[in-house]
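Final report, section 2: Outcomes. Of the targets proposed, Alpha 1,2-mannosyltransferase is the one most frequently requested by collaborating groups, and we therefore present its record in full.
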Amino acid sequence: MAAGSGRILRYILFAVFGTAIIYFISTSSIPSYAQQQIPSTGKFTWDRTSTQTSDGKPNSAHDALGSEASSSPASGVPAASNSQSAAPLNGITTTESALLSPPAPGERVNATFVTLARNSDLWEIARSIRQVEDRFNRNYNYDWVFLNDKPFDETFKKVTSALASGKTHYGEIPTEQWSFPSWIDQKKAEAVREDMRRRKIIYGDSISYRHMCRFESGFFFRHPLMLQFEYYWRVEPSVELFCDIHQDPFRVMKDNNKKYSFVLSLYEYVETIPTLWDSTKKFMKAHPEHLAPDNSLAFLSDDGGETYNKCHFWSNFEVGNLDWLRSKAYIDFFESLDKDGGFFYERWGDAPVHSIAASLLLNKSEIHFFNEIAYYHIPFTHCPTGDDVRLKLRCHCNPADNFDWKGYSCTSRYFDLNQLAKPEGWMDQV
Ligand SMILES: Nc1nc2c(ncn2[C@@H]2O[C@H](COP(=O)(O)OP(=O)(O)O)[C@@H](O)[C@H]2O)c(=O)[nH]1
Ligand SMILES: [Mg+2]
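The predicted structure is given below as tokens.
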């Protein structure tokens, strides 16, 4: 009898000990959050499937818009929610991985990550996805849209959908958005490329880079796969995130009525945009109704709009509002620039185009600087200023690498214009 109850006691102790270990493992994963609170409005299951849509060409908009509506983030349940159960991945089911790192509580914003990439970018974008997931999305499970001017191959889809915790969508770009518009003189464009090649201007002789800049300037937000979303976060290959992200950036944007955000800003190479400001002035004259009353013209110009100081937000990182990009004001701006031909007769980048639009068409309060999102895209680093914030967010960037307060950054100007207090310690980094 006594031996039997001793055995039972050992079993109980063993079970308690085992449960404690499992609890410890599941709560020590980064970042850690309380158990998911199930919204009363929807059904929630731990299972999820990375849905590979067919290469969603614009004429297959139905795939993008209709078939997944029941589990879309707009419904208020996490994007992870899906009626199908997931296949085991290297022996670990996604159900188990969700238990190891449970979804963060709270409603999701109707938002997605978006990446433009070639099949050959696979391993570079894999690194970026892994970082975004580890630092943030593993607990939020936002969708991810991949766009390409060619069909994505099976390996690209398999690897990226395994890495992303939310649903994945794969879309092809319509030819007319990745080719020379009818009004472009191709001989003239070719001569420009040859001249820029001789002058060794970065990407100066590239046709595809120009299509990429034009697509990012005027079309990605109108792709059928993007139409269902309200906010986007652009992710490029080979970027790094150095700190945990504890606050949902999409929620920060939405709750504070922000339309555009950045982490790095700098001066553009003047050789790539000699007439961009002339085109901008033409637009301002033609469409004064689109200029925001409390705009950031002073971020772009030091002489009241006469000349451009080349300051821009670096668009390889962006969290922004898609409805703003789809607005008449933005589309009028893009179309006006597009007609002027500078995407091909010069080498206008999407970064100055987005930045000029945000600075002129939005009120100051609608642009946001994410100090706490630590970020690297070759060759610049944004590492949050302030020891406290870096320790709290478990950052691994070297503060000495922070670009924010260096002479070639425009972030100091942004702070001054918006009368924001610079974080303690900024002076030591100048
Ligand atoms: N599908 C596709 N994506 C491209 C092409 N060129 C660039 N990209 C993507 O466009 C983005 C910017 O290109 P990247 O080479 O990083 O330019 P950089 O950051 O200005 O040096 C990245 O997400 C690339 O993967 C292209 O020809 N086709
Ligand atoms: Mg890049």
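Residues 236, 316, 377 surround magnesium ion (ligand 2) (CB under 6 Å).
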